Amino acid sequence: MKSLYSILIQTSEEEHKYIVSLPELGAYARTQGDSYQETLKNAQEVLELLIEDDQARKTSLNKPLVININKKKN
């Protein structure tokens, strides 16, 4: 599933884990993992579950933040 939502991955030195949050989807859209790859996979699963839940409830998730890095200056 392709999505355009931001995924923020940080390290927790205290717990020796990676912590991920999905900023556009709220404070509770978080997960963690022991490796960067596992954490990214977990984030994708959380995102997919949120999208499925949103569709089942017929509600609307916050829109993804889109940044155009190729914008030309005049």
Please characterize this protein's 3D structure.
This protein has a domain at 8-57. Helix content is 30%, strand content 19%. The chain has 1 helix and 3 strands; from the N terminus they run E-E-E-H. The N and C termini lie far apart (36 Å). InterPro entries: TA_system_antitoxin, TTHA1013/TTHA0281-like. This is HicB-like antitoxin of toxin-antitoxin system domain-containing protein.
SSE blueprint and pairings:
Layout: E1 8-12, E2 17-21, E3 30-33, H1 36-57
Antiparallel strand pairs: 1-2, 2-3
Protein name: HicB-like antitoxin of toxin-antitoxin system domain-containing protein
InterPro entries: TA_system_antitoxin, TTHA1013/TTHA0281-like
The structural class is: alpha+beta
Q: Mind summarizing the main beta sheet?
A: 3 strands, antiparallel
Number of helices: 1
Question: Overall pLDDT, averaged?
Answer: 86
Number of strands: 3
String of helices and strands: EEEH
Strand content: 15-25%
Question: What does the radius of gyration come to?
Answer: 14 Å
Through-space gap between termini:
36 Å
Helix percent reads: 25-40%
Query: What are the low-pLDDT stretches, counting only 5+ consecutive residues below 50?
Result: none
Strand order of the largest sheet: 1-2-3
The gross shape turns out to be flat
